[in-house]
């Protein structure tokens, strides 16, 4: 296939590269972004190599696996555990639907863990096949840069391989960080949490982000007692405040003990478990302490400074809007650039990279209206602006529509848990700026709403859309009355 190389919008002469470089593209890191960029570039005719650390569910600086965080230690195994945990409450809900459920329901953690591992091993194989089917050469080992066009791969046995490439793509993702408190070695990160030998009876989670609340929900759903500690008043900073409050209320109602404005200061090993000490002087004993205290870009061991690649103060690789670093032959996508750290975003960046460099179509990733979900139980999902962001960015007034309702399923099951929806609308243009929902199936519903927002839908268009009945989703097209009008300065003008 003819090879097209686009540099700053100009096609270079194909024969030049073949003579000089082993590969057109060398990708370091075979996670979401790296695999996408490698496959698409190869499909566009480039000669591509990729390197990835050897496979294991728990990562380290020398352990990883094709598929990356999402497949092996993130989205996929987590969602499997969320499904597993959700059956507990589903079984309770089934009783009023006529299912005779014996009081004692057993849960076999080891069985679920084995099924989860089988699935990630299967996906790891699929990702390897995707690469080989696209003609991408895979090297197993740790990659680092030696120069602007040279990569060195250290294989498991210590052998070093060196290759030149016209372009190098850094796609090494991120890694969980620990909070730096005495006894932190007694705690675990999300990597280990997805592979625990035993289901904890008493779990402590430190962190208020999505990973923290998801694991709190998983363990609680499986029957553990869970204490969730976080620094703010509410968990899930960055999401709409009203929806954060709904999510917090649901977590509490499902039996999770929330400890807002509280940090952990020390962990001590005792005969009974891990003694957890808080900055309020509280003490409790746990079987497992999870640190979900943020992630850092995986950039330390890549020799980037020596090659002159600029990093930001957090260690993220600095890139322009095409994902190119300050060194023209070196590019970076995904979590290592710390833009929006989500799998679909890494995929988008990988796709745009391939189109820009090998497809003859310079493409910038578009970060507007990225939907996302928190898979706590029940889940929260959002797209567009939160009310707080809209107030900050708006020129004029906003109309806020909310709906809090008892999902139909709960009317028979008796579960006391409301679903809550929200739309934030520009009062002048009628454009829907943001949507959120906390309740069952919200991620499935929000994906469709995200298309509407991407198309610039107005509230009138939402209202003229026919609902699907009976469903929770139809509520999004029947929110007729304004809950409140918010002035651009953020002060409620009227409560309609
Ligand atoms: C617990 C958890 C849950 C998550 N849940 C979600 C979710 O529900 N939805 C969502 O969208 N996102 C989720 N994410 C985030 C998502 O996993 C990441 O945003 C995504 O994987 C980023 O892709 P990436 O390609 O940048 O990096 P990664 O997928 O992390 O891939 C980087 C790869 O580079 C390899 N590597 C690192 N250094 C080297 C080296 N020197 N040489 C060779 N290889 C190297 C690593 O082993 C890794 O395989 C979750 C993350 C975690 C931790």
Automatic annotation (TrEMBL):
Q: Which GO terms describe its molecular function?
A: flavin adenine dinucleotide binding; glutathione-disulfide reductase (NADPH) activity; NADP binding
What does the record's cofactor remark say about binding?
Answer: Binds 1 FAD per subunit.
Q: Which cysteines are joined by disulfide bonds?
A: 70-75
Which Gene3D superfamilies would you find in this protein's record?
Answer: 3.30.390.30, FAD/NAD(P)-binding domain
EC assignment: the record states 1.8.1.7
Q: Which residues form a coiled coil?
A: none
Q: Which GO terms describe its biological process?
A: cell redox homeostasis; cellular response to oxidative stress; glutathione metabolic process
Keyword NADP in the entry? The reply is yes
Q: Which reaction does it catalyse?
A: 2 glutathione + NADP(+) = glutathione disulfide + NADPH + H(+)
Q: Which cofactor does it need?
A: FAD
Instruction: List the SUPFAM superfamilies.
Output: FAD/NAD(P)-binding domain, FAD/NAD-linked reductases, dimerisation (C-terminal) domain
Superkingdom per UniProt? Eukaryota
Residues forming the catalytic site: 469
Please give the PROSITE patterns that the UniProt record associates with this protein: PYRIDINE_REDOX_1
Residues that coordinate or bind NAD(+): 207-214, 294
List the keywords (alphabetical): Disulfide bond, FAD, Flavoprotein, NAD, NADP, Nucleotide-binding, Oxidoreductase, Redox-active center
The protein's role, per its UniProt record: Catalyzes the reduction of glutathione disulfide (GSSG) to reduced glutathione (GSH).
- State how it assembles: Homodimer.
Task: Supply the name of the protein.
Answer: Glutathione reductase
Phylogenetic placement of the source organism: Eukaryota, Viridiplantae, Streptophyta, Embryophyta, Tracheophyta
Gene assigned in the entry: GR
């Amino acid at each position: 296939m003819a090879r097209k190389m686009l540099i700053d919008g100009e096609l270079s002469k194909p024969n030049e590269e073949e003579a000089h470089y082993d590969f057109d593209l060398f990708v370091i890191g075979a996670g979401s972004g790296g695999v996408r960029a490698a496959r698409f570039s190869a499909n566009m005719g480039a000669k591509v190599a990729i390197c990835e650390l050897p496979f294991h569910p728990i990562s380290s600086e020398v352990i990883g696996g094709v598929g990356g965080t999402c497949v092996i230690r993130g989205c996929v195994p987590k969602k499997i555990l969320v499904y597993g945990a959700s059956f507990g409450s589903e079984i309770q809900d089934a009783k009023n639907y006529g299912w005779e459920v014996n009081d004692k329901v057993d849960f076999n953690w080891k069985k679920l863990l084995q099924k989860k591992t089988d699935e990630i091993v299967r996906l790891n194989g699929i990702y390897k096949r995707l690469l080989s089917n696209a003609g991408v050469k895979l090297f197993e080992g740790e990659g680092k840069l030696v120069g602007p066009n040279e990569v060195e791969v250290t294989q498991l046995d210590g052998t070093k391989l060196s290759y030149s490439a016209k372009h190098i793509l850094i796609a090494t993702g991120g890694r969980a960080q620990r909070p730096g408190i005495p006894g932190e070695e007694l705690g675990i990160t999300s990597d280990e949490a997805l592979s625990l030998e035993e289901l904890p009876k008493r779990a402590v989670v430190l962190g208020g982000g999505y990973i923290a609340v998801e694991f709190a929900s998983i363990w609680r759903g499986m029957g553990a007692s869970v204490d969730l500690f976080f620094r703010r008043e509410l968990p899930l900073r960055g999401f709409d405040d009203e929806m954060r409050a709904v999510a917090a209320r649901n977590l509490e109602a499902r039996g999770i003990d929330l400890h807002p404005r509280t940090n952990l200061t020390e962990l001590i090993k005792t005969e009974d478990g891990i003694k957890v000490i808080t900055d309020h002087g509280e003490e409790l004993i746990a079987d497992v302490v999870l640190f979900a205290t943020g992630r850092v870009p995986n950039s330390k061991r890549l020799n980037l400074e020596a090659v002159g690649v600029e990093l930001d103060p957090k260690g993220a690789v600095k890139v322009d809007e095409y994902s190119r670093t300050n060194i023209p032959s070196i590019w970076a996508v995904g979590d290592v650039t710390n833009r929006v750290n989500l799998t679909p975003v890494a995929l988008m960046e990988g796709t745009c990279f391939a189109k820009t460099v090998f497809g003859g179509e310079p493409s910038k990733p578009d970060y507007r209206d990225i939907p996302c979900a928190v898979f706590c139980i029940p889940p929260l999902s959002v797209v567009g602006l939160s009310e707080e962001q809209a107030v900050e960015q708006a020129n004029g007034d906003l109309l806020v529509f909310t709906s809090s309702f008892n999902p139909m399923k709960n009317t028979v099951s008796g579960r006391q848990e409301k679903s809550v929806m929200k739309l934030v609308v520009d009062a002048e243009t009628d454009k829907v700026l943001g949507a959120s929902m906390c309740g069952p199936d919200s991620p499935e519903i929000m994906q469709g709403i995200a298309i509407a927002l991407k198309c610039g839908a107005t509230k009138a268009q939402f209202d003229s859309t026919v609902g699907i009945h009976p469903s929770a989703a139809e509520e999004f097209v029947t929110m007729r009355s304004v809950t409140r009008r918010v002035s651009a300065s953020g002060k409620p003008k009227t409560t309609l």
